[in-house]
Specification:
The complex is a heterodimer of chains A (about 325) and B (about 250). Chain A is mostly helical and about 325 residues long. Helix content of chain A is about 70%, strand content about 0%. Chain B is an alpha/beta fold and about 250 residues long. Helices cover about 35% and strands about 25% of the residues of chain B. Chain B is built from nine helices and ten strands. In chain B, a hairpin with a 2-residue loop joins strand 9 and strand 10. The longest helix of chain B has 13 residues. The chains are: A mainly alpha (about 325), B alpha/beta (about 250). At the A-B interface, helix 1, helix 9 and helix 10 of A face helix 2, helix 3 and helix 4 of B.
Chain lengths: ~325, ~250
């Protein structure tokens, strides 16, 4: 009675079969990033910082925005990645950048897996506190291991081999850094994008929306969360390694609370669980921080604080959520044909 | 030929001093259309939670097809073929109706942990989900998010998710509560359309629904089985009338 494939013609089914398709506007951020390279050759250092922040925020979005894992300690993995490449290069063990990223991902993933297996038995405020504790433990460990990490002074003046043996990292003209970060971000983004539109990603949103029901449909909830957390940690580790490689130094700021809070603010500002929220949030936050700190060198964080209050009051879903609201508003005002 | 699907042997559950289930011996056989009734606080939902593994019994065993599943967690029992709906909707509120059912169907077909293929390319999951929605007259709402639907329609999604698991035992916890009476027949029709060999247990306060649906009724009072029988026997049982039907008459 039912023709096979017939029900796929339903608008809802079509929306689902087509939602992972790449849309034309999705080229826009990448074109903008390339245009930035040519238009602002003197601000590529700043640009690199934005790209690293986007990748870090994407990793957090996967865990927090999609799977609903409430974490305030994501800098633990960022720092683990940064110190992995930093220490290996500083002590002359390994300084090839691309394999360095892979090592950083592996180290961060192991920490994510080990901590996730314990942490993800809890939820809510307990989970939040435990993620914070994990990060604090790592930070203290890095602080104590002076011989390896340089403690508070960090590891300055690290050098890395040229990317692919061709492109040198020049601290004064960070062209290589920018393009390298852009390439790594692109790969990371493509991976996360595929992940969130997969059945696995769909089940993560299920866990976020109703964990109890996920148990009742037979989903191995904790396994999925641990896998998600591990992947998210690995990507955060890559972002941290990228940060160390493009800045040519590592210090404790890689895994402190300020970094963890900043990436959370970036994600909330842009809109979490929306894939592109990280892009918008990172650009908005860093550009604003840049100009505000120039205008009001002592009180610039006040401006950011006010902005956050406004976002929390009027745009719960961040800047992208605001766009959605406007779009819905205009669509509902347009007379139906 | 009937086989015993789900069975409890002397199952008890205490919450502190409260004995929510005491010495319950109960079985659901293939093809069963059974109802569990009882006054408020009789322990009906507790019993469902014991059957599905939300918590473990204080004492006693739970068996599925003769196999002891007392220690088995919830998700593993679902894989065996035990599905339930909830008295209060437990839906994926921010997702569309289709996505809600998709999650259950994908889980059953074992594709839900696939990472590197788009969810939209699993056509068999989408087709089956849409088919279910059509059966429950939900197809027109398939693209709406749950929070956009009236409560009665949400109840149907609740049922759709459970049906997407193609269970052998289906436990329905007040499936028609909050559904406008004009729509409650959709739920019964859907239950009638289930494969005849699966066992269905329904908990409800709606006596019309219970008596229309059930071939066997179990009455639970203060955590213990009070009476069992066909609808006719239960309806004629003066004790049941006294503790339950009489009470319901006042309400």
């Amino acid at each position: 009675m039912n023709v096979p494939g017939e029900s796929l013609g339903h608008p809802a089914a079509r929306a689902l079969t087509e939602r992972h398709r790449i849309r034309a506007w999705e080229a826009f951020p990448w074109l903008l990033a390339i245009a930035f390279y040519f238009a602002f050759p003197r601000h590529l250092g700043f640009g690199t910082e934005v790209l690293v922040m986007i990748l870090f925020a994407i990793s957090l979005d996967l865990a927090l925005g999609y799977a609903g894992i409430i974490t305030l300690g994501h800098a633990a993995f960022f720092g683990a990645g940064a110190y992995t490449v930093g220490m290996l290069a500083f002590h002359g063990v390994w300084d090839e950048p691309i394999t360095g990223l892979i090592l950083a991902a592996a180290v961060a993933a192991v920490i994510g897996l080990a901590s996730g297996l314990v942490l993800l038995r809890t939820t809510g405020l307990t989970l939040l506190m435990l993620t914070l504790c994990t990060m604090a433990l790592l930070e203290e460990a890095a602080n104590f291991a002076y011989t390896y990490t340089g403690s508070f002074d960090g590891l300055p003046g690290i050098t890395f081999k040229p990317v692919l043996g061709l492109f040198e990292f020049n601290p004064l003209i960070p062209r290589t850094q920018y393009l390298y970060a852009l390439a790594v971000l692109f790969i990371g983004f493509v991976f996360v994008r595929a992940l969130i539109y997969s059945p696995f990603g769909q089940s993560l949103t299920g866990i976020r929306e109703n964990t109890l029901r996920m148990h009742a449909v037979g989903a191995p909830v904790r396994t999925r969360l641990v896998v998600c957390y591990t992947i998210s940690a690995a990507i955060a580790g890559v972002a941290g390694a990228l940060w160390a490689q493009t800045n040519l130094y590592v210090n404790l700021s890689a895994l402190n609370l300020e970094r963890a809070a900043t990436v959370l603010i970036v994600l909330v500002l842009g809109g979490y669980g929306r894939l592109y929220g990280s892009f918008i949030g990172a650009v908005a936050y860093l550009v604003l921080a840049h100009f505000l700190s120039q205008l009001y060198p002592t009180a610039w964080q006040l401006g950011l604080g006010l902005l956050l209050v406004l976002i929390a009051l009027f745009a719960r879903n961040g800047i992208l959520g605001l766009f959605d609201m406007l779009r819905r508003h205009f669509r509902s005002r347009r007379p139906h044909s | 030929m009937t086989t015993t699907l789900l069975e409890t042997r002397n199952v008890s559950k205490s919450f502190g001093a409260l004995r929510a289930a005491s010495d319950i011996n109960f079985r659901i056989e293939s093809g069963d259309r059974r109802a569990l009734i009882g006054p408020n606080g009789a322990g009906k939902t507790t019993f469902i939670n014991l059957l599905t593994g939300v918590f473990a019994p204080t004492s006693g065993r739970v068996l599925f097809k003769g196999r002891d599943i007392t220690e088995l967690p919830q998700a593993a029992r679902v894989k065996l073929g035990i599905a339930r709906t909830f008295q209060i909707n437990r839906l994926f509120r921010g997702l569309t109706v289709l996505e809600n059912v998709y999650i259950a169907v994908a889980e059953r077909l074992g594709v839900a942990s696939a990472m590197l293929r788009p969810a939209g390319s699993c056509r068999e999951v989408i087709e089956e989900s849409m088919h279910l929605l059509e059966q429950l007259k939900l197809a027109d709402d398939a693209h709406h998010t749950i929070s956009e639907l009236p409560y009665g329609r949400q109840r149907l999604v609740e049922l759709a998710i459970a049906l997407g698991l193609k269970p052998e035992v289906l436990l329905l916890d007040e499936p028609a509560a909050g559904v406008p009476s004009a729509e409650s027949h959709i739920i019964l029709d859907a239950v009638d359309a289930l494969p005849p060999h699966i066992g269905v247990l329904i908990i409800d306060h709606d006596m019309d629904l219970v008596f229309r649906f059930a071939r066997h009724i179990t009455v639970l009072v203060r955590g213990a089985i009070f009476a069992e029988g066909t609808p006719k026997e239960i309806g004629a049982n003066p004790d049941v009338r006294a503790v339950y039907l009489g009470q319901a008459g006042h309400g």
